[in-house]
Give the backbone structure.
Amino acid sequence: MNTLFPQSTQLLSRAHYPVIVVGGGQAGLSISHCLQQQGIEHIVFEKNRVAHSWRNDRWDTFCLVTPNWQCRLPDFPYQGDDPQGFMLKDQIAEYVEAFARKIAPPIVEGVGVQHVVRGKSGRLEVTTSAGQFSTDHIVVATGGYDIPIVPAYAASLPAHIKQIHSVDYRNPQALPEGEVLVVGSGQSGVQIMEDLHLAGRKVHLCVGPAPRSPRMYRGREATEWLMDMGYYELTVDRHPLGEKAREKTNHYMTGRDGGHEIDLRKFALEGVKLYGSMADIHGSRLEFLPDLTQNLDDADEVYVSIRRDIDKYIAAQGLDAPEEAPFEKVWAPAADPLALDCDAAGITTIIWAIGFRPDYRWIELPAFDGRGNPKYTRGVSPVPGLYFLGLPWLHTWGSGRFLGVAEDAAHLAGVIAGRLATGESGPAAEAAVA
């Protein structure tokens, strides 16, 4: 493996560390930096290499959805010449690698963590591909995007129809000739749809309940307005949905070609065929829920509500910003389609873009709810010594992004430092440093 930090025999020669960090992406590197600032000994295990997922698990034209100025890893903000732009995947990887080089973390690449259990001594016993270790505190910074979601009924598709998950999509040329159905209208789904459409492929899209956002509005990037309005500082405990906010799909738009919003109705006018949510598959016959009209309307309502909130902020602050015409629908389905035959339509490929689910089976601790999701408060698990970092809405909207991970990492490092100082690893120690 061509690693950024060759394996260190010295790091692996120790059997115990006060802190072990699992995952060497932006979250794991951020907590490593904060632990170093606290003078806390630790080791970071990364099963691949730094920035692996950015380089290897994205399609060729992938870019950030949020502007470069939102890249704010701890003490390492974006310093390029295009803060309003959107980094491509290799540029993102280079940014993360540059951060790693700067902080020089005690990281071992190519080592996966396989099991975590509570030992008889009370310490956490950590089994890795490089051997056995123990720790008092473990930070799980693996991201939670472990298992690509593909519905069970996908097995009903005939073999001559190729199906892949969005994580395996690279470019239109790599797909068989013929028309393509993309299932899912979250950020990945709509961007892959646009990638195929711009390449001249005939595209079909299953539209789910994902919301959409303006890109530019009243003379500014919408994310700049939202930043000024405090949206990114909203904590999950103050969110109207509470912890259910973690289950919401992100708003779709794109950073492609300088960034623009995505109105699926306009793509329909350009020939993209839209359907509602996928309901079932019987051979080459696909069935859909009758929710296309509702899903388009709901996405537009979120879009318009963001514009309304910006309007209110501009008025309240007495700002001078150019007016914009009200939103108008440019297309609507005559009826919600309920079925489609792939063979009759010429569809030769289906791309599943309906997300991922985490896989925490390697953590054998009572730290999860009945659906396998971790339980925590601002990343601190009720299980002593266990922490999570880098997950969406871990604390704020930016927690799962480059924007908010630094603040979350600093908080967890402070909690851990307080617990190490007192010899505690339970909730009482968190209260002492809160």
